Amino acid sequence: MPELKTTGLFIITALAEIIGCYLPYLWLREGKSILLLLPAALSLALFAWLLSLHPSAASAGRVYAAYGGVYIVMAILWLWAIEGIRPSTWDLIGSAVALFGMAIIMFAPRST
């Protein structure tokens, strides 16, 4: 079950990053309160901490590369759920490719 744990941790990490970036967007582009920067900063700090929780067997570069695939999927889901924009077929295909890439990077057998 390490695959489920890793993927779940990536999902939570992606949510922290997306929230940490979306809140300043609301302030800068939508005229919302500057006070949104405080939870944004906390969310980005949480994001960095969550990335550090991945198993030590995976190098930081490998974790960051694989995380990108999950981030893409979560960003497309955010687009749909929060922004109300339905993903296109190409969005879904691209997300599937990214997720497949994450699985190869994180779960492929390695000799060391």
UniProtKB/TrEMBL annotation:
One Pfam family it belongs to: UPF0060
- Give the transmembrane ranges: 7-27, 33-51, 63-82, 88-108
Regarding the membrane, this protein is recorded as:
Multi-pass membrane protein
Keyword annotations from UniProtKB, A to Z? Cell membrane, Membrane, Transmembrane, Transmembrane helix
Q: Where in the cell is it found?
A: Cell membrane
Q: Does the keyword Disulfide bond apply?
A: no
Family label:
Belongs to the UPF0060 family.
Which NCBIfam families does the annotation name?
PRK02237.1
What's the name of the protein?
A: YnfA family protein
